[in-house]
Amino acid sequence: MTARATAVAHSNIALIKYWGKRDTAIALPATSSLSLTLDAYLTRTTVEWGAESDSVVLDGSRLNGEAESRVTRFLDLVRRLGDRSDHATVVSHNSVPTAAGLASSASGFAALAAAATAAARIDLTPRDLSILARKGSGSAARSVFGGLAVWHAGTDDASSFAEPIVDPGLDLAMVVAVVDAGTKTISSRAAMQLTAETSPYYPAWVESSRTDFTDMLDAVARADFTRVGELTESNAMRMHASMLGATPPVSYWQPDSVRVLQLVRDLRVSGTECYATMDAGPNVKILCRRTHLDTVRDAVAALDIAGVTTSLPGPGVAVSQAE
Ligand code: 2P0
After folding, report:
1. What is the DSSP string of 16-38?
2. Ligand 1 mean position, distance from CA 188 (Å)
3. What domains are there in the chain, each with its CATH number?
4. What is the ipTM for the molecules in this complex?
5. Domain Diphosphomevalonate decarboxylase-like N-terminal: where (predicted)?
C-alpha cells in the first residue's frame, strides 16, 4: 500500500478580514474572521510519503527558497503528528493565479493539510484539520469548509479553529474583477506584520473588526443581504486604511481597482445591489445575489480590465483519492 493521497480545496474570500496576528509562532490571529468559500478557484495536491527528501512541484515548477521551506516546515508538523521521519513528494496544481491576492495560500495549505494527513493515515476531525491548515496559512483554516465559515481567533492553539456556519438563504454569489493576476509586491504575511507594528490605525482596525464580526454573525443569521454587504465593504476598506497608515505605507490598489469600486457604487445606485471587497492585491471581489451575477459580470467586462470570473459558494476540502 502506498502512502499517497490527493486532496482538492477551494479558495475563500473573507467578508470580515483577518489582518494581523497576536501570536506569530503558532499563527493566532488578532481577530476572528468570516469567509465565503468559492467554487471558482481550487488547488489539487497529491502527497506521497516515503521519499528521501521533501520536494514540492507547483504547476510544473520545482519550488525552492522560502516558498519550499514554508511547505517543508508544514510537513514537519505532519511528521510530528504522525510520528514519522520520512519525507514527502508534493505535486500541486492551482487554478488560482499564485500570490495574486486571490487566496491561493488558503486553498493551497488546506489541500496540502488534507492530502499530507490522509496519505499518512492520520485521521483528523475537520476542526483539527483547520487548526493544522492554519499553521500553514491563516486563511487556509477557513478553506477546510464550504460556503460560509468563521475562524475563531481563539486564545491558544486548540481554540483558534474554523467551522462552517449555516447560510439561512442569503443566496450569495461573487464576481471577481481581475485587475492584475501578477504576483503581489509584498506578501500578505509581511504586510500585515508591518501594519500591526507601525500603523497608528491598527488598534482601531482590531477594535472595529471585532464589532464587525459580531454584527456580521447577526446579519447572516437574519439573512440580511444588505447588512452583510455593507459590513463586507466597510470592513475591507478599513483594513486597507490601516495598511495606508503603515511605515512605509502598503497599498495594493491600482487605477483599475478604483474604477471597479466606482462601478460597484454606480450599480447600487441603478438598483443592482452589490458590494466590494479587496484583499492583499489589486483585484476586486464583488458580492451580489445569484440573480445579479450576469448583470455584474457584464458591467465589469465592459470596463475592459484584465479579466472577470463568476463564482458560487464552493465546497469544503475533499480527499479525492487515498491509495
Ligand atoms: C483574509 N488575507 O482574511 C485576509 C484579508 C488577505 C487580506 O488571509 O500569514 O495568506 O499565511 O496567515 O492567510 C491572507 O493572509 O496569511 C489573508 P498568513 P494569509 O483572507
Report:
1. E----EEETTTTEESS-EEEEEE
2. 6
3. 4-167 (3.30.230.10), 172-311 (3.30.70.890)
4. 0.98
5. 9-162
